[in-house]
Amino acid sequence: MEVDVARKILDTNDAHAGQNRERFAAAGVFVLNMMSSPGSGKTTLLEKTLVRIMPKIRCGVIVGDICTTNDADRLARSGAPVTQINTDAFGGDCHLAAHVIGKAADAFDLENLDLLIVENIGNLVCPAEFDIGENARTVVLSVTEGEDKPAKYPHMFRKCDSAVLNKTDLLPYLDFDMAAAEGFIHQVHPDMPIFQLSAKTEEGLSPWLNWLTTQVAENRSAR
Ligand SMILES: Nc1nc2c(ncn2[C@@H]2O[C@H](COP(=O)(O)OP(=O)(O)OP(=O)(O)O)[C@@H](O)[C@H]2O)c(=O)[nH]1
Ligand SMILES: [Mg+2]
């Protein structure tokens, strides 16, 4: 019975995600869903990314948290239009569902955006289950979380299109085994692109920016 209920929720979500996907495709906007555990550095990476790729790439951001507008305030400094979703108002969901993204997208002039980034709620489990109609997904894993997380939380890594290994500036102070982490990621998702970087120092940022801007350019030329 519980399984039936869960299936129904996901089926309803998939229908909304399909509607979002059609809408985003019609507007020609590329949608990236960024996910991670709390505090892996999603907002920091986005702050640094937006500064580098705007205004050449016209960006908007939807950011989800249970409470606070902290991340929206940080990201709005880039000049990009930002909408904050707080799920506390409707039960404190630990993920962003497709119908919530559909409503948040109403605040944007989608036709005049090249890239809409969704910073999902910090959680390595639930967000992976909810299609939001995105074009691509990126998971951020920070080196302070331990190299075994891709093996312990395989769904997230299986369902993403790229992975960022963040906070590499901290490696000298940790026992984090980078080769093992990459091995665990490729065990659950062979060939997934992995970007080792420090959002703080910006070391290693370029390959990540190249990947992202290539995705956006391919989406544009496919129109
Ligand atoms: N040393 C170091 N700290 C970082 C790096 N990236 C982020 N941080 C720090 O990690 C903490 C969390 O960063 P956020 O960018 O807020 O992380 P987040 O994933 O957006 O967090 P939530 O939205 O709450 O899930 C902050 O104190 C950042 O300054 C990094 O590359 N190196
Ligand atoms: Mg954040």
Summarize the structure.
With 223 residues, this protein is an alpha/beta fold. Helix content is 40%, strand content 17%.
What order do the helices and strands come in, and which of them pair?
Elements: H1 2-27, E1 30-36, H2 42-53, E2 59-65, H3 70-76, E3 82-86, H4 98-105, E4 115-119, E5 136-142, H5 149-152, H6 154-158, E6 162-166, H7 178-188, E7 194-196, H8 205-221
Parallel strand pairs: 1-4, 1-5, 2-3, 2-4, 5-6, 6-7
Helix pairs in contact: 1-4
The protein binds guanosine-5'-triphosphate and magnesium ion.
Describe this entry's structure for a reader.
This protein has 223 residues and is an alpha/beta fold. 40% of the residues lie in helices and 17% in strands. Strands 3-2-4-1-5-6-7 form a 7-stranded parallel β-sheet, sandwiched between helices. Helix 1 runs parallel beside helix 4. The protein is globular, with a radius of gyration of 17 Å. The mean pLDDT is 96. Residues 42-43, 71, 119 line the site of magnesium ion. Guanosine-5'-triphosphate binds next to helix 2.
